[in-house]
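Thought: the user wants the 3D structure for the chain below. I'll pass the sequence to the structure tool as-is, report back what it returns, then summarize two notable features.
Action: structure_tool
Action Input:
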Amino acid sequence: MRFIGITGGIGAGKSEILDYIKKHYRCEIYLADQVAHLVKQPGTRAYGELVDLLGQDIIAGDGSIDRAAMADRIFARPDLLERVNDIIHPAVKEYLLERLERAGKEGKAELFFVEAALLIEGGYLALVDEMWYIYADETVRRERLLRSRGYSVEKISQIMARQLTEEHFRRNCHFVIDNSGSLEDSFRQIDGKLAGVASRM
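Observation:
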């Protein structure tokens, strides 16, 4: 079973790529943002550490962490962001490695994917067998975000300015899927890459 990271800039179409893979290959797929939410649930170590760091008033009425309250606390004190990340990021990696080990023992999946925009920055190159970069031309990405998410031009520019450059993505990834054109073309690139590595369903 191969452990593959999926990364790329906002608007590159990572979700569509993963939807295709999920439907056509025996795999497990985890989105790092969703896992980050799971590891903050009551009863987890990260939950206790975050409450200790940020205070009891980030706890919502149902006992979970109120994400808005947590964001407000970090916004008020930017020095807390790094400490919060030092709690959440290791917990996410631990969760994923546990699931990877379990998937290996069960033997049902041939591929194990984790997706996040920040995989390279998060040190995942040391964990995965391969890192895939989902690329799309910047003009295409901007049009997608304007159309599908309703983001303003200014917001899109701000987000893109904070992300890695195309050159950095390409330098740190083993395989590039050009998702600038049709999805069918992207799917052919995936099938070509996985031919002989994993069987289609």
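Final Answer: Structure generated. Residues 80-106 form the longest helix (27 residues). The longest strand covers residues 2-7.
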